[in-house]
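Notes from hallway chat w/ T.B., transcribed later so I don't forget. T.B. wanted the structure written out for a chain they're using in a teaching module, and asked if we could keep both sequence and structure tokens in one place. Agreed to drop them here.
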Amino acid sequence: MASGYQQHMVDLLPQEALGQVVDLFVRLVEAAGAIVIFVGAAAAFARFLVVAVLRRDAEGFVAVRLFLGRFLALGLEFQLAGDVLRTAISPSFTQIGQLAAIAAIRTALNFFLSREIEREGGAAGASGRRSTAGAGGG
């Protein structure tokens, strides 16, 4: 009787079906990350054109970089989520190792990108406060 129960549980969700479902989820999450990055790049390019044609100042370019950086960071988070999902059903230690290396690279990229955004955002904010104070004080 126990063997019939175990056989029924095995048939309920076979490894192959689970793999296909997780693979679909991975593709959806990675597609979401790619879409976020594409939308951010397109919007940043539009902002870049406005800055390049109308303003032509360094602060405008920094703002465009920060804008794009936020989209890149979010897109990398989605890509990392896809990596985590993929490891849920990895059949071998080799594949887990490869995914761990990819995840480490993406995490490092995201860390440095976030740090750059914070640093540039702080510098842009301080520069904006100085120019506002200088304009109002004169």
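Follow-up for T.B.: The CA atoms of residues 119 and 125 lie 10 Å apart. Might be a good example for the class.
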